[in-house]
Write a structure and sequence with these properties.
elongated; five-stranded mixed sheet; 5 helices; mainly beta
Length: 447
């Protein structure tokens, strides 16, 4: 909205106005009844004096600025332009107050209302309301939010998948500023991170609040992203969070501590990865739950028939990386659980403990490993390692507060100092970069 300040201009009767303002109250009351004060008069219809650039009898091109002009001795005092969703159009007035043009792009396929206030050479106010439509976009830019609607753990990030790549920072800023996320009860401050040209993740500075309703929506409909590419209408997403579930595994003591809303519920003896197959440190998010998985070593690059090969039926498997790291039942290693690390990278438990764990976690819950000799979970290339970036590092992935990965992607394999900024429960050890193609370590070694 552009409320332009009234200021002295050639031809205006400043002495007359000052005289009226200095006159006795009785004169002021007379003027308020329309007795000569031009400021007290109802605005006249300025239609004959106002012109604007829109196709006559057709629709305006949203790629071109809206221009409003006045004729004769009339001057523009205010222009307010809004589309059908209530979005305002910014603009600039010429030095002589006779021309106004928009400085932000119009939306495609939208209906606009423009209210122009004027003042003639005699100081009399005028008003003209204009309406027009813009042509629809020839190609639509869509945003698909994830995950699917449902209830998740407090570590689940919101994802946005774009229908077309967005590379430069200016265009990324346009997209990001129109992707809105809200939570009830309110979450800590959050931000989007550009994982690559077509993928963004959103998380708060600390975990989502428990038992919250989270909504993500796009307001890009009709908005120009790049030349010839306009946003389309997309379906919003609403998800919910359950209890704040956190499972902390200490690889140095071979114990897992299970917390529900900050309260310790159970402690389990576990085994993690043996030397050469050390379990990843860091914060991981539950990706899936599979009651049965047949784990074969050759699927992760371990040759069949070698000393480390395996082909095992595994039950109550909770997945935490896409490459195959699970928390699962490992009855063959019960004698080592709580005492030694003998697995190929997974966290092994007794069948009863794994079943209990399986039944008490959901997708999005936090599974954290500390004091392992393994590398730290990478942020984006093997599941949701988003929380292994500090809040300051996370903000650098935004096109609004950081560089937005405008050099061609935010980088999905680099590590970062772990933790989430201001939440001591989420502090981590310093990450170690993981080479691309790092093989999965799935099942504990058989007896």
């Amino acid at each position: 909205m552009n409320h332009l300040p009234s200021r002295p201009r050639p031809g205006r009767r400043i002495p007359l106005r000052r005289a009226l303002l200095a006159a006795p109250l009785a004169v002021g009351l007379a003027a308020c009844s329309g007795g000569g004060n031009p400021l007290a008069s109802s605005p006249h219809d300025a239609a004959a004096k106002v012109t604007y650039t829109a196709a006559k009898g057709g629709k305006a091109d949203p790629a071109k600025p809206l221009e409003v002009s006045v004729k004769g001795g009339t001057q523009i005092t205010d222009v307010t332009a809004t589309d059908s969703t209530g979005r305002y159009v910014s603009g600039q007035l010429s030095a002589d107050s006779k021309h106004w043009h928009s400085t932000t792009p119009l939306a495609a396929g939208s209906h606009y209302t423009v209210r122009v206030s004027t003042e003639d050479s005699g100081g009399r106010p005028g008003r003209k309301t204009l309406t027009f439509d813009t042509t629809a976009a020839t190609s639509g830019f869509h945003v698909t939010f994830g995950p699917d609607a449902g209830t998740y753990g407090v570590g689940e990030p919101i994802t946005a998948t774009l229908s077309a790549p967005v590379k430069d920072r200016a265009s990324r800023a346009i997209v990001e500023s129109h992707l809105q996320v809200s939570a009830n009860p309110s979450a800590a401050a959050g931000s989007w991170y550009w994982v690559d040209d077509k993928t963004l993740h959103y998380r708060p500075s600390t975990y989502w609040p428990a038992h919250a309703t989270i909504t993500a929506r796009s307001t890009l409909s009709g908005v120009q992203i790049t030349k010839g590419l306009y946003g389309a209408a997309d379906k919003p997403l609403t998800i919910h969070t359950g209890d704040r579930i956190e499972a902390l595994t200490d690889a140095s003591t071979d114990q897992m501590t299970f917390k529900d809303d900050g309260k310790v519920v159970r402690t389990f003896p576990v085994t993690t990865g043996k030397p050469g197959f050390d379990t990843r440190n860091g914060i991981k998010v539950v990706l899936d739950k599979e009651s049965f998985v047949q784990m074969r070593s050759e699927t992760v690059g371990i040759a069949a028939g070698s000393s480390d090969s395996y082909d095992l039926p595994v039950y109550w498997a909770t997945r935490v990386t896409w490459s195959g790291e699970y928390v699962h039942a490992a009855p063959w290693s019960v004698g080592s659980q709580g005492y030694a690390n003998v697995s190929h990278g997974c966290t092994g438990m007794s069948t009863d403990d794994a079943h209990w764990f399986f039944d008490h976690v959901r997708v999005g819950d936090i599974v954290r490993v500390v004091n392992s000799h393994g590398p730290t979970m990478t942020p984006f290339d093997n599941g949701f390692g988003d929380w292994n970036l500090t809040w300051a590092q996370w903000q650098k992935g935004s096109a609004l507060t950081g560089d937005g990965g405008a050099s061609g992607g935010a980088g999905s394999t680099g590590g970062g100092t772990s933790g989430t900024g201001g939440n001591s429960d989420q502090d981590q050890t310093t990450p170690v970069d993981v080479p691309a193609g790092d093989p999965a370590r799935l099942s504990p070694q058989t007896a």
